[in-house]
Amino acid sequence: MDLFEKFGIETDNELLYVMAFTHSSYGSKHDLNYNYERLEFLGDSVLNLIVSKYLYCKYPQYEEGKLTKLRANYVCQNALIYYSHELNLREYMNIDVEDSLLTEHEVLSITADVFESFLGAIFLDQGIEFAREFLAKHIFKHIDEERIFFRDYKSAVKEYGDAEEVEVTYNLIDESGYPHEKTFIISVSINGEEMGIGKGRSKKDAEQAAAKIALEKLKISVF
């Protein structure tokens, strides 16, 4: 189905949406002077603003810290990948996987970027109210269902360390792989005692994996 028909968009600026779905690999190969990165930057802010307002109104009893954690669950990369796949945005992407040597993991990350760049294009072209209606239709239902996309194990370990007045440290054990497909192994220690070792495609992912193991040992649940 046509992108504009699918999302009820009437526009005189189709190029803006082409930009929103164009990865730098495709732009470089075809000598284009644009890609989605600037729109992604804009869409990220629009997403945070609209989701923040929805959570602020939905949960008047929550303080700032809890609202921040809750928002993180709905704007994290896992959530964006889910939204993008649910809307089948990959169908519209302009990307050269083979020429740019992108891994499948990196392509997944790009699908998350494209959700934000598409939202950025919608905001520029259709305005903030249309962008809000778009998110209300496709994203707010997941908030209402309290769907979990991300559990912040690292923050939970930090909260434990602060409460118990113990030192929490992360150490890089190993880093391997090609520059575009690295694997990191990181340990977490509490007061010098190693409590978990995690592996991930980024240092952040490896730290989260290590923190998850530490919390399991401490018998602390994260919701």
The overall number of domains is: 2
Structural class: mainly alpha
CATH architecture of the largest domain: Orthogonal Bundle
Count of helical stretches? 12
- Radius of gyration from CA coordinates: 20 Å
Order of helices and strands: HHHHHHHHHHHEEEH
The end-to-end distance, rounded to whole angstroms, is: 38 Å
* CATH level 1 class label of the largest domain: Mainly Alpha
Regarding quaternary structure, how should these chains be classified?
single chain
- Can you tell me the CATH superfamily of the largest domain? Ribonuclease III domain
How would you concisely characterize the structure shown here?
With 223 residues, the chain is mainly alpha-helical.
Secondary structure elements and pairings:
Blueprint: H1 3-7, H2 14-20, H3 24-29, H4 37-58, H5 64-75, H6 77-86, H7 97-100, H8 104-126, H9 128-138, H10 140-144, H11 153-164, E1 168-176, E2 183-190, E3 193-200, H12 203-218
Antiparallel strand pairs: 1-2, 2-3
Helix pairs in contact: 2-8, 4-5, 4-8, 4-9, 6-8, 8-9, 11-12
Q: What does this protein structure show overall?
A:
The chain is mostly helical. The protein folds into 2 domains: 3-144, Orthogonal Bundle (Ribonuclease iii, N-terminal Endonuclease Domain, Chain A); 153-218, Double Stranded RNA Binding Domain, CATH 3.30.160. The protein has helices at 3-7, 14-20, 24-29, 37-58, 64-75, 77-86, 97-100, 104-126, 128-138, 140-144, 153-164, 203-218; strands spanning 168-176, 183-190, 193-200. Strands 1-2-3 form a 3-stranded antiparallel sheet. It starts with a helix and ends in a 5-residue tail after the last helix.
